[in-house]
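Q: What would this chain look like folded?
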Amino acid sequence: MPKLRDEAPIKVDLILPECIDKVVSFIPVLSSIPAKDIACWPEAKERDDGVLVLGGLEPSYHPSVIALRQSFNENHFVQPFDWVDWQPTAEKMFTHPNRMSKATLKTCIKLITLHVRKDRFVGGHFGEMVRCGHITAILRRLAELREPLAQMASDRNEGFHEVEG
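A: My prediction, written as structure tokens:
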């Protein structure tokens, strides 16, 4: 099936080592949140006529989970691309966690984007990915990719001398 629109390329050059530092700093924070506190669903209530009314379609997230999502956005880890079409690849990464060790920066960006965006359509998705450890696995892979990224940035800047004029 042909694409209906051109897909914007993932801009890995927006991800500086400092961006990775900011998001990987959440690794110990996430591991300290009790699983039951990651996402709290509103309680259903029974009306006088016996009908059960759902409390809501979206959970309330722990403040640290909200802060992580905000940090993903602020540090360019959420980027426009056809994440719906890419879901089968993401599912393979999820069902075969050993593949994360080979994930590129581009793949990590796509995974983060997918999980953040999917949460808007499937309430609680992001929280479940935090609870099961998938988000932490992505963050750990980003931590591994940080040093090579920093070296590449250093190499690009080596030999750069500002000319006064």
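The helical segments are 17-24, 27-31, 35-38, 63-74, 83-95, 105-121, 125-131, 134-157.
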